[in-house]
């Protein structure tokens, strides 16, 4: 979700004063170079490539996030990135860093497609409702439309593909014993043991985090990029976008990480036949973690998440832009 949001910002982010008009003209011209289907393909493939390259860090993040569910205090104090990575290699093998990556790719492709498609539809709808025309250059109205459109697109995509996100978490969280043998086995087992609603555990925390996450991503990226371009207009747009995108990723991850951790914990409720740990919904789970583990417990796994943000943004940006160039050439032919 975060990554795709930033890709959209890279492609269509606005800037104050004269930069807004210039960027909108550039974006409209660029959009004419590539069809909607090609754009969706580029976004989906870029997301899948990025997730595959950063899968080891993503799995470490998930393992740290869920440690407090069934671990005692002494175990938590000994946790470190190097110790956990060494354990994975020695007990599960190097390939285990990519455990659950297939379902991540299966999830990422439709998620990206739905995000891009619904973002454009929501943006056009909001422009009509607010009376803002596509060619107008009102900075405040443009930011509002993009923030609201991005938030609604994120909610739509997250709701439609959430069961795959839950399965990915459960597959990634497995260590020595593989209770779930694959995507379809996990979907069938969860539906049978926990009911259809079991596939949507933690959805509330996910939806609560989508809006703020995208809002922070959009505003931090847009503000930093606009200021940079005003101060150093001759700098490479690639460097500017990567640096500002990384900054927005760190900011949004910091703010939304507690909700993401709550979502992961709720996704693992009842997994593998274990007794439920949290029984009072999103806010009850939040309070339980806060009481049992303190503020630090809500940020368990934030370090590998930070390490993941910068390469993830860079890979998505470069893959997305390169694929758009290739696909635009195919469309032209």
Automatic annotation (TrEMBL):
Q: How does it sit in the membrane?
A: Multi-pass membrane protein
Q: Which GO terms describe its biological process?
A: transmembrane transport
Instruction: Answer whether the UniProt record assigns the keyword Transport to this protein.
Output: yes
Q: Which Pfam families match?
A: Mito_carr
Please list the residue ranges covered by the Solcar repeats: 34-125, 141-227, 236-326
Keywords, comma-separated and alphabetical: Membrane, Repeat, Transmembrane, Transport
Which SUPFAM superfamilies does the UniProt record give?
A: Mitochondrial carrier (SSF103506)
Q: What protein am I looking at?
A: Mitochondrial substrate carrier family protein B
């Amino acid at each position: 979700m975060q990554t795709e949001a930033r890709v959209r910002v890279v492609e269509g982010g606005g800037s104050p004063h004269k930069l807004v008009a210039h960027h909108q003209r550039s974006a409209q011209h660029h959009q004419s170079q590539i069809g909607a289907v090609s754009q969706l393909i580029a976004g989906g493939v870029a997301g899948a490539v990025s997730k595959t390259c950063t899968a080891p860090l993503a799995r470490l993040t998930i393992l740290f996030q869920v440690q407090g569910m069934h671990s005692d205090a002494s175990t938590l104090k000994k946790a470190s990135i190097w110790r956990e990575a060494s354990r994975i290699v020695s007990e599960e093998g190097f390939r285990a860093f990519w455990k659950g990556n297939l379902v991540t790719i299966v999830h990422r492709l439709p998620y990206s497609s739905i995000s891009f498609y619904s973002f454009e539809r929501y943006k056009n709808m909001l422009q009509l409702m607010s009376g803002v025309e596509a060619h107008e250059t009102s900075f405040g109205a443009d930011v509002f439309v993009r923030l609201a459109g991005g938030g609604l697109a994120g909610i739509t995509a997250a709701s439609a593909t959430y069961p795959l996100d839950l399965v990915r978490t459960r597959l990634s969280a497995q260590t020595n014993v593989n209770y779930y043998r694959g995507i379809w086995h996990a979907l069938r087992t969860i539906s049978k043991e926990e009911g259809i609603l079991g596939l949507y555990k933690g959805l509330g925390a996910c939806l609560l985090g989508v809006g703020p996450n995208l809002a922070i991503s959009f505003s931090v990226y847009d503000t930093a990029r606009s200021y940079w371009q005003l101060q150093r207009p001759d700098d490479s747009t690639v460097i500017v976008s990567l640096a500002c995108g990384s900054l927005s990723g760190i900011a949004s991850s910091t703010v939304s990480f507690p909700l993401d951790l709550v979502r992961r914990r709720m996704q693992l409720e009842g997994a593998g036949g274990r007794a439920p740990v949290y029984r009072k919904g999103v806010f009850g789970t939040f309070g339980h973690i806060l009481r049992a583990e303190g503020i630090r417990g809500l940020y368990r796994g934030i370090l590998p998440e930070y390490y993941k943000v910068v390469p993830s943004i860079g890979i998505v940006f470069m893959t997305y832009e390169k694929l758009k160039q290739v696909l635009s050439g195919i469309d032209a032919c």
